[in-house]
Amino acid sequence: MIRATFIGFLFLLSFSACDSGVLVSEKWTWDDHQWITGDKKSFVMQATDTTTVYQMDIVLDHEETYGYQNLYVRTSTIFPSGKEVNSVTSLELINPDGSWSGDKGENCCKVDIPLQQKFTFPEVGAYTWSVEPYMRVDTINGINSLKITCRKFKE
Predict the structure, then answer these.
(1) What distance in Å separates the CA atoms of residue 95 and residue 70, rounded to the nearest whole number?
(2) CA–CA dist 62, 76 (Å, integer)
């Protein structure tokens, strides 16, 4: 009995060690497969130092019927000091040969896109990060989910 408990504890410990480098991970889903302009998604990250190197990735799950080769998003970062930095990024979803990027499932595609690599936080404290669609249409059809993960940089 004690041996089984110990093995179970080691098993759980190994799972927690796998994600020990994750600072934050958030996922949003759209059951109606529509991301509407103005539907801003946000989370808070707590930076405890200014020397640790991080990376931020987006995993986008979209329908094969998604009508564009990319998805423009507007991101915003609010620093602990109150400074705000905004940027517009094109998330490329099509390979050069015209096929969908990423893993293809039944009627959907999941693509993992590096958003920002090898960065450090310039200030210690709470950062608010947000993402919203920035397309020429108000309703972006064919979006199933969006996941953002900020973790310690992996070589």
Answers:
(1) 10
(2) 23
The model's pTM: 0.83
Residues in the chain predicted with pLDDT less than 50, given as ranges, are: 1-17
CA–CA distance, 12 with 9 (Å, rounded to integer): 5
What is the full DSSP assignment across 21-41? TEEEEEEEE-TTSEEETT--E
- Determine the Cα–Cα distance for residues 139 and 54; give it in Å rounded to an integer: 32
Strand partners, 81: none
Q: What angle do CA 76, 78, 58 make, to 5 degrees?
A: 40
Res 134: pLDDT: 97
SS (H, E, C) 94-133: ECCCCCECCEECCCEEEEEEEEEEEECCCCCEEEEEEEEE
**Residue type (1 letter), 82:** G
